[in-house]
Structures are given as C-alpha cells and as structure tokens.
C-alpha cells in the first residue's frame, strides 16, 4: 500500500537514531548525576524512558503491517497493547514531583535531567499517536480519527493517574486484573476520590490534546518543506525540521493529507 514518498532510503533509521541520541543524552545526564554527586535517586527515570519507547515501537509495527495490507481486526491486539503502554510516554512528565533540593546535586541539574526525560518521553508518545492517527484516518476518515485521538488521550490520562496515584503498571491489567480492579471498586463510593481522579484526568487530557494539536499542526500541515504558504513563503525552519522527523518515520507528505493526517 503506497501512502507516501520517501525522501531518503534510510529515513526511518535516521530519526530512530535521533531518538536514540536523545535517550542517550538523558541516560548520560543521569549517570553524571549519579557518578559525580554519588546519588542514585533518579535511576527510576531510566526504566520510565524504556517504557516510553514501547508505544513507538508498537505503533511502527501497526503502521507497517497496515501499509502492507493487514486488516484492522488483525491489528486490533497490537493496537490494544499500544494503548495499554501509551500512558508511559507522558507519565515521565509527572516525575517533576521528585524535583526538590537534594544536595550535593544542584537543583538546576535535576531540573534539566527531568526536562530532558520528560520531553523525550512526550515526543515518543506523540509520534506513536501520530502513526496510529494516520492509520485510523486512512481507514475510517478524519472525524473518526480525531475521535480516536481524543479517546486515546483520555484513556492515557486515566492511565497516568492510575500510575502516579495508585501505582499501577501497564502490565497489571494482564497479570493481576482482579487485584487491581479490587483496588478500584472501593473508591467508586468515595465522592472525593472520584472527583480527584476526574479532575486530574480531565486536566491531563486537555493539556495533552492541546499539545498534540499543536504538534499535529506543526508536523502535519507543513510536512513538505517545498510547499509554500498562501503568501508564497516556505514553511519555517521549525516546521520543516519537525515535519521531516515525522516524515522519516513513515507518515505521508502533505499531498497525501486527503487520505492520511
């Protein structure tokens, strides 16, 4: 199934290397903190970053199999697994709750480390969502695809809440569903718990939806650096850079936007 024109034979590898370098920088920053200041308080970020990669790898698999002609029903299990792990990507942004003075490590370094991990995780999640968005739009149309995006972000926000406040893991629903559901049921009768969960989920959904919309506008509407605006000027450097990154991962160029995002 032809859905885009490649600009370079190794496009996807180049962007995956870029994400790999970003992840390596995150790991290096954590190691500097650990080795130079003798503190291991941020080791959990390494595991969280690893989990943030899983949705992207799953989304690439879904996109490639769909492009080769796989039916949606065949891709459904992989899509469910993708949705199950998607909260791990934006979850890293909530790790800022750990930002506090922790001598001898300087506070500015801790802030830089958390920011690097958070931005890398969010971008990994958004690119994976963009790929799934592309598949759904190509198969079901624009309205259904955007409804899917909003639903995925709402479930992702709920997953972030469960992970941050109830300490759930993505695989808990697979390996111990009864125990986890038993943890939730008593809270359904607690109005304060429901209100707190609803408020956090709604806030996260709004923030993620607004950020993804900006991401989509930047990489989707000006995906082709040769395309000119209505004023006859080419897209800005930032739009070209982000657009090229997403195009490399296999998303179609602007002239294919009628069928894909």
Characterization of the model:
This protein has helices at residues 11-37, 44-67, 72-85, 88-91, 107-140, 142-165, 172-175, 177-184, 191-220, 237-248. It has ten helices and no strands. Helix 2 (44-67) runs antiparallel to helix 3 (72-85), helix 2 (44-67) packs parallel to helix 5 and helix 6 (142-165) crosses helix 9 (191-220). The chain is globular, with a radius of gyration of 20 Å. The two termini are 16 Å apart. Helices cover 69% and strands 0% of the residues.
Précis, in short:
This protein has helices spanning 11-37, 44-67, 72-85, 88-91, 107-140, 142-165, 172-175, 177-184, 191-220, 237-248. Helices cover 69% and strands 0% of the residues.
Q: Secondary-structure blueprint of this entry?
A:
Layout: H1 11-37, H2 44-67, H3 72-85, H4 88-91, H5 107-140, H6 142-165, H7 172-175, H8 177-184, H9 191-220, H10 237-248
Helix pairs in contact: 1-5, 1-10, 2-3, 2-5, 5-6, 6-9
Task: Give the H and E element order.
Answer: HHHHHHHHHH
Unreliable stretches, pLDDT < 50, 5 or more residues? 222-242, 250-261
Mean of residue pLDDT? 82
By DSSP, the count of extended strands is 0
List the domain count as a whole number.
1
Strand content: under 5%
Query: From the alpha-carbon coordinates, what is the Rg to the nearest angstrom?
Result: 20 Å
N/C terminus separation? 16 Å
Total helix count? 10
Considering DSSP H and I runs of 4 or more, what fraction of the residues is helical?
55-70%
Main beta sheet: none
Class of secondary structure makeup: mainly alpha
Shape, per Cα inertia axes: globular
